[in-house]
Each structure stands twice: as structure tokens, then as C-alpha cells.
TrEMBL record, chain B:
It comes from Actinoplanes flavus. This is Extracellular solute-binding protein. Keywords: Signal. It comes from the Bacteria. Residues 1-24 form the signal peptide.
Amino acid sequence: MTAPAPVKAEAGVSPKSRRKIRDNLTGHAFLIGAVLCFALFMWYPMIRGLVMSFQRTRRGVTTWVGWDNYLRIIDDPSFWIAWKNTFYFTGLALIVGFAVPFFVAIVLNEFRHAKGYLRVLVYLPVMLPPASALFLFKYYAYDPSEAGLFNAVLTWLHLPTSEWMQSPTMTMPAMVIASTWMNMGGAVLIYLASLQNISGDLYEAAELDGAGVWKRIWHVTIPQTRLILALLAMMQIVATMQLFIEPLILANGAGTQDSATSVAYLIYQHGFFQNDLNGAAALGVIMLVVLAAFSAVYLRLSTKD
Amino acid sequence: MSVPQYRKVAALALVAGLGLSLTACSTKSDDDGSDAAGKVTITVDCQPVAAQKELLDNWNADVAEFQKQNPDIVIKSISVGQQCNNPPDFTARLAGGTTTDVFYGYMTDLQQVLDSGQAMDITPYVSKDTVSTWDSVDPALKEVFTDGGKLYGVPVKNYSMGLVYNKTLFQKAGLDVNNPPKTWPEVREAAKKIAATDKSVAGYAEYSAGNTGGWHFTSLIYSQGGRILSEDGKKAAFNSPEGKQVLQNLKDMRYGDDSMGSRQLLQWGDLLTNAAAGKVGMFIGAPDTTQAIVSQFKGKFEDWAVAPLPGQTDLGKGTLGGGEGYFFKKDLTKEQVEAGLKWIAYQKLTPGKGQFDYVRAKPQNYPVGLPQPLLFAPGTEAQKQELDLRKANANVPVENFALFENKQLPIVGEPRDAQAIYAILDSAMSGVLTDPNANIDTLLKTAEEKVDQLLAAGS
């Protein structure tokens, strides 16, 4: 990569710099659109949210209240439950939602025929609008009676059935299953692409050294895709910590005894059900700080190579 | 056009387009609602949605007729969904300042509307000169929309809850349709019998999500003689023997008798859909829930009857009353407020017109003859006119509502910050309905802590 040429400071606007400005006008013009969009729909709301988190509006009058909103939100009995639930979901989603797509990608990569069809099949759920997919899960798969799809299968297998979203212990795993089914298509394609970049020579050499399937995965596939794995893991942590639509649709909100309340849902509850937009903003800022830490790791990883 | 030129033009067009659209977004309307011809325009929400065809036709016909009678007023109708006030949408509109000029709200919304700073004090404008039946409107309903001696809304509907039951399922279970349960132990017995006839039927159904669980808990605790808040409204009062009894009754029916069906976490539409499908024996609700069951969820009027709310040892000690009204957005002109009041007076508060046009409603799939709303105070001329018209045009079996109508229980209003409290109480309701090991004391204590915190923060 070559370093950019140093720009000389010139008094007045020389024909050269005028030409330079003219040449770059198109680029700047395109940039203005993006910058304006970001400023209006991302940066301004973020700054406004930060300001709101230190204010309180009552009777149309807004006052500065310092850290009051933060203290109040931390005092909410649901605060720690929401964080616990969110981390639990993130952890489960990382184990299931990370391992399953990787495994599926490895299996797909081994197929000689019908690769394209299988890829489309795996990617299909991603094309379904998330709300529709979740309603399908809610009314068909997770119906707590024996008529529910999952319960019917479990009954057929002579296994104990579950109340799914109505059971405080099954709420989170059920949401992870739905979420993984909905989202794994994208991850599988990324893994597949990275798997296909691994040189066949490495596998050949491993095979000659007597490595079986598992050893080849452990010693060749995983080290060769390490960076992609780490990147996706970070992206997934940041995405899953914003868990919202799953509790909203599958659990009708908080679920049974707060078992589905996530941090993002608690923000929504304070803001839109409890007439507490300022408290919601404070929780939003807290969440931002936590997510920023994970995002920093992601950025570090993504710029490493 | 060469490629660089083409790019330049495209970029400039993009910037210009974006600039224009941003200008359009940020342009604050300084419209005072009147045009050059001297016409006053007001926007009004809660226009029925397309799926409510007859109601929508009626609304549009009312607008046309009203504008004909008042050629200087233009009504712009806005539909905000079937429920008119879905709490999150309502909050978003309030926070964003995007409500219509005259906007619909629940009686429980007054505090939130005032906090948002979006409401207008309409005290100077409301009198029998602007709303001809104003003096007949029940003073208790006006009070609900009054704060600090100032009126902020006009009541247009009210309700109180009773025990809604399916006569067909009662008969199937060998129960007497003319003698529905009067106490919660009797409800429990009846629910058991109904559920025994068909595994897919819930003998008694109850809400536990989307704020509706807390809403019904409130009515249930009133029936026990308990209250949600202390007298001064500063502390939660539902962690009481009455509150515990409410949850115990539900837990007993759900897990002791298995008479409440397996699907829980129900919200408004879920329960009514099941009821319309003949899968619910009893639930608590206002008489107009039968209207929703029929017109929105395709049930049958003949199936449904309403009785007074049961209590623990006799009929309920009280029942929850609530309702709806219209607020006026701040900064409206005098002419706009008067136009809005004129419209509400015409469509909502005149016997024989708008919502009380029973002659028009009679042949429609829309009930006439329900015991509510009761907007006008007893003994007033407006009430007499409205009741006479209602009786003359009844199209529902009125005898199905006679038990409810003849035994009026004391009506208790909703607590302050009702929607926020209901959201918290949902958790206690879902607890006993989905967890056989739920600890009632813990559920109530947690909810109490949350409500106390909410009240402390709001005061």
C-alpha cells in the first residue's frame, strides 16, 4: 500500500487545488448523503438519548436530574434479571448458534452434489421475515398442548413434553432454538466461503500423516478459519445481546415471571409501557457501554488481518 | 453522458433529493388549521380500520353528514389501528408529538398525556353551548378527565366489568344458564364442569400479558374488596389477603383443576379469539367484549351472557370501571377546539346520532341493546332519549345482559399510572398461570416493590 501524497499548503486557491476540489466533488457529494443519514438517524438519536438519560420530563417540563434515572433503573427489580437473561441467551446462542452453523458448513462443504440446493435450503429461513418465523414457532412449534409440533414429536418419541414459552426454565432455550433456526443461514454461508479458501493440500498432507475426520477439523479447519470464527463470535455476541423481537413475539413480552425479559425489552417496557422514556434512555446508555466493549474487541480482531 | 459526468449528476441529484426530503421532514407545520376560504380543519384519530367495514362506513357517513351541516369545518380522519390505543404506539405518538388534533385515549391515560405536555386545557371551551348534552354527561366521567380543576378530555365511552359466560357451553356442562356463578368458588366448580366436557375448552380463561393481566387483576382484587393502591395513592396495596386470594383462585383453577386450558400468556385478542371459537366458558369483561367477539372475532351473540362480577363469599364487593375519551392537542386555535368539540358532540354525545344511531346500527352486525355505555347521568333527558332508542332498536337478546344490568356493583376507577402498574402485575398473573410451583407471596412482593418504586419516581 502506498502512502498518500502530502498536501502542500498554498495561499489562495490555485488552479491546481480548484481542480482537485472539482475532481473530488462527486465523492464529497456522495459522502454528504451518507453523513447526513448517519447524523440524523444514528448520531443525533444517540446524543439525544444520552442527554435524555440525565433529564426527567413531567407535565411537559424537562429538568436535569443528574444520575437519578440511572439509580432508579438499577434499582428496578427486573434490572439484574434482564442482564442475567440476556447473558444467558447470549451464552446459549453462542454455544448452539455458533457450533451448529459451523458444523452444518463443514457438512455442506463435504457434499459433492446438490450443493447449491442445500445452500438455498439452509439460507431459506433468513429470507422469511423474522416476525412471521417467530409467529410460526409460537403458534405451531411451541404450542404447550400436545397438538404443538415439538410436543407431538416428543410424544411420538415417548419423551416428556414441555410447556416451552410458558415454562420459566424452557423460555430461554426455546428462544435460542428459534433464533438459531432463523439466523444461521448467513453464518453458514460465511463459514462455507472461508472453508472453501482452505487449500486442499493441507487436508491432503494431514491425511497422509494419518489424520482422521476429527483430527483434520481440529488441526486444519479450525486453525485456518480461526479469525472468521472469532469475528463471527463477536458479531454474534453484539447481535444476541440486543435480544428483543424473540421475547416480544414468542413470550408476549416479559414471559412468565420475567423469564424472557431482556435488557432491550426492559428498555421498551420502561419507555413505552411505564411512561418512563428517561429511564429507558439511561438503560440504553448502560447497554451501549457494555456493547461498546464487545465491539472494541470485534474491531481489534477485524483489523488484525 | 460520460461516466464521470453521469456520476456527478447522480451525486448532485442524490444530495438535492436528500436535502429536499430533509427539509420536508423538518418543516414544522405552522398551520393554524384554517385555509383561505375560512374553513377550519381538524385531524381526528380512531377512525375504524378497513376490516371493521360497517363501523368504517358509519364513521365516514357521519363525517360526510357533519361536514354538510358544518360547511366551514373539515374533518380529516386518521386510523391508528383496531385497538385505537395500543399503549406502545400511543406513547410513541405522544413522545413524538404526532398525535392528531383531537386524539383518543383511555381514562387511565390522563397523567401520561399531561406528562408529555401534549394536552390542552379545554375548560373554557366546554359548555352546553358547544356540547349540547354536556350538562347530562355523568359528572363522575368528567371528573376522570379533570386534573387540578382543569378539564383535559371529553368522555365518549365507559364500561364496568362482569362475568361473561358462554351459554352454549354452560348447557353442555349441565349448568343453569339463568343462574351463573355468584362467587369465585362457584366459578371454580363451573369451570371444572365445563372443562370436563371437552379437553380443548378452558372453563375459565384469564389474561397474563400485554398489560391485560394487570388490568384484570385489578378488577379481580376489587371484587374481593381489595385495592391496588393505598388511599393516598403513594404505595402499592395489592400485596394483601385479597390480592393473595385472587392469585390463589387462579392457581387452584389452573393447576388444581386444570380448568383454564394449557395456553397462557394471553393478551386481549388471544382470549377473545378463543372465546369466539367456543373454547372459553367464562372470563371477566365488560358487556361490549361480546361485541368484539362477534364483530372482530366472528363469534355469535346468542352464545354470550353477562352476570355481575362474583366475589369470594357473595357477589363482588366492587368492579373495575373505565372508559375512553378524546383529548385536544396543545396549541390548537379556538376555532379548532370548538370544531373538535362540535364533532365529538355530534358523533359521540348525541342520542340518535353517531355512536347512538341505533336505527342505523340495528340491521348491522353491531350490537344494540347492551347495557353500556352509560355516558349520561340517571334522570337526565339525554339518558332517557338514549335508553328509549336503545330499547326500541335492540338487536341482541337483552335478557342475556339482564342479570348484569339489574345488579350494579360499586364501580371503582383505575389506579393512577394504571398502564405502568398493569405491566408490572402481568408478571404476577403469568406466574400463577404458568408455574405450578409459583410462590404467590414472592410474586406479590416483587410486584409491590416495583410499583412502589414506580410511584416514588413519578411523584
